[in-house]
Amino acid sequence: MAAACIGCLRRSGLLKAGVVGAGLMGAEIALVFALSGHRVALHDRSEEALARAIARLRGVLDKGVARGAYAGAAADDALTRIVPVTSLDAMRDCAIVTEAVYEALEAKADVLRGLDQICAPSCIFATNTSTLPISTLAAFLTPERRGRFIGTHYFSPVSRMQLVEVISGFATGKAVADEVVSLMTDIGKRPVRVRDVAGFAVNRMLHALLIEAVKLVEEGVATPADLDMACRLGLGHPIGPFAMMDIVTSDLCLQVQGILHDAYGERFRPPALLKRRVAAGLGGGKGRTGWIDTE
């Protein structure tokens, strides 16, 4: 597949996309490509994980969550365009592959090295990392591949959140970045270009807020529920910081803040209360107690 073909495939709806990682983010990234009419190979090492992902996506569609932005025939049979696979060989003929595995350098490096050996030279590699610098991840690819590697940081839930941060590394070609911005627009997203720094833009703003919110609770200034209400009513936020942490999990927030602390120092030091709650198993998420439950 020649590099120049991807724009034609994108516009014709014949593009084949790959997504590696069938978790909450990866599955919904696959869904938005499929809702836009593209074929998708969704990879995970576990058939059970793939089955859970497809069932979860069926639930998203049954609830009508994604249909407002993706109306029409493409939305009606979106799941038929997602093929669950357990071998990376299925990515061989993809025009773009998005890595969406666990937010750990080693895990992402293993995936990128594997894809580098399989995919066509024209394939664009994208990573959904939320914190790791793109140029650091690019170092795990062969030099010839790095110009076609880019960050596409989606936000959860992907089927509803329009924003995607598009991050170029040192070696990312301008034409590749332009093509990815156009592709993100085509699949119903609103891309913003962000410089390649740890945490990018949105997570730096978000975690500054989350850290200060936890400190307010530590100091006894206000309760999590009242701070959530204050952010909704006073700042116009659709969801408060503690409700958000209960959804994305405090465990993940602690992990991200650790990365930001390493990169930027004291201003992103995770609060002691957050650490204690995660250690106590009060991180929130499906089936687990979080901030609001234990107030």
Break the fold down into its secondary structure elements and pairings.
Layout: H1 5-12, E1 16-20, H2 24-35, E2 39-43, H3 47-62, H4 73-76, E3 82-85, E4 96-99, H5 105-118, E5 124-127, H6 134-138, E6 149-154, E7 163-168, H7 174-186, E8 190-194, H8 202-218, H9 224-235, H10 241-248, H11 250-264, H12 272-279
Parallel strand pairs: 1-2, 1-4, 2-3, 4-5, 5-6, 7-8
Antiparallel strand pairs: 6-7
Helix pairs in contact: 2-3, 8-11, 10-11
Key attributes of the depicted protein:
13% strand, 295 residues, N-(1-d-carboxylethyl)-l-norvaline Dehydrogenase, domain 2, Rossmann fold, 2 domains, alpha/beta, globular
What name goes with the CATH superfamily of the largest domain? NAD(P)-binding Rossmann-like Domain
The 3D shape can be described as: globular
* H/E series: HEHEHHEEHEHEEHEHHHHH
**C-alpha end-to-end distance:** 56 Å
From the coordinates shown, what is the CATH architecture of the largest domain? 3-Layer(aba) Sandwich
Count of helical regions:
12
Q: Output the CATH class name of the largest domain.
A: Alpha Beta
Question: How large a portion of the residues is in β-strands, by DSSP E?
Answer: 5-15%
Counting structural domains, the number is 2
Biggest pleated-sheet summary: 8 strands, mixed
Low-confidence stretches: none
Give the total of beta strands. Answer: 8
